[in-house]
Amino acid sequence: MNPLSTIAEISKHEGETVTIRGWLYNLRESGKLLFPIFRDGSGTIQGVVPKNAVAPEVFEAVKGLTQESSVIVEGKVRADKRAPSGYELDVANVQVLQRVPDNDPFPISLKEHGVDFLMEHRHLWVRTPRQAAILRVRAEIIRAVRNFFDDRGFTLTDPPILTPAACEGTSTLFPVDYFDEQAYLTQSGQLYIEATALALGKVYSFGPTFRAEKSKTRRHLTEFWMVEPEVAYAELDDLMDLAEALISSVVQRCLGNRRADLETIGRDVSHLEKIAAPFPRITYDEAVGRLQEGHARGALENKFEWGGDLGSPDETYLSAQFDKPVMVHRYPAKVKAFYMEPDPQRPDLALCVDVLAPEGYGEIVGGSQRMASYDLLLQRIREHNLPEEAFKWYLDLRKYGSVPHGGFGMGVERVVAWVCGLEHVRETIPFARTLHRLYP
Ligand code: 4AD
Ligand code: MG
Question: What is the reported pTM?
Fold first, then answer.
């Protein structure tokens, strides 16, 4: 029996005959020579099938074989400098498990397709090399995030997905009929990991979160994955230190382990090579100054007024001014969530930070110090018209040993989009959920 090999590990078998289990990715034929390209999920490799060197039935099996037919291939691994992977396979045998019918070919051919067509066939689109590379980068980012927190003494605590109340504003809640009660899909695990942070010190959560976003932008999904650290006794500067260390670590890991995938995707990695702490930190006030100056120069259409939240064009403009992520801190409390601690120096500001990725990618991290005072928190809950009953337990955290604490949320899909240099977040998750997409 030949050793089984993945295409990614083929270099370990140079000169040997191996078995590869996969699919036919493409086939070039030139008379008595066939050049099938096989893929197995780990990569692609070109095979060579000369008519006079293989059994007639092997030649016949490969000749005219349809794209994405499943195959078990035996062949000898030969180094070839011209091959993208550095190796070719001298095919000795091919067993076809299922032949894709000629009259119903694989829908995604190697020619260009429109995005709507591709999203409609997402279950098949994920097989193409670029999409597979993006998913490997995503997995690397998730692994890097987990390692980062696990190595620093954080405990993973999983918050519930079914919740009785809002965390990030009532306008983007997905309602769920919970027996006789009204429930919602969680917008963020934050409120719950504040409780576990006060129990365990340093915690994080990593899970799916939901926003009934009516926005049809290239940055918004209705279901996305968020990693959220939460730290007892942490203040705003500590959170900014943590965010820049996390982001640098994630980018460095991708550069170290996924360079070939980034190349497949077509990413110019020179942008990523600059990503190392420290990151620039500017106040909201300073950001407003820059935006107003941008407007005066004609680079921004609308004049930004102090007091508003940054819109997508504002974030794009600001982040394009730096070649590292920029941390914008101390926004007006009015435009931010109810739970943020006011700045003692200027109580109209919140002790919060948004991290904007460079190259115009916009917000990838949002976080803050949390309100420590029971009375002030109760007042905010009332001002925001939130149901007091549902927040009783959350207020308890301010009654029993309240301490300064804080954390942030990092959206995985936005980070994948930036690291891979993608136009839209819909390609960063295996099956994107957006305003108009619930299929497949
Ligand atoms: O800024 P957000 O809304 O903050 C929170 O949810 C806090 N409770 C997090 C915390 O402090 N623990 O969301 C955090 C991040 C954003 O910076 C963005 O990266 C991502 O989550 N995000 C989205 N990603 C994709 N689609 C959407 N609709 C997103 N909304 C937020
Ligand atoms: Mg935010």
Answer: 0.97
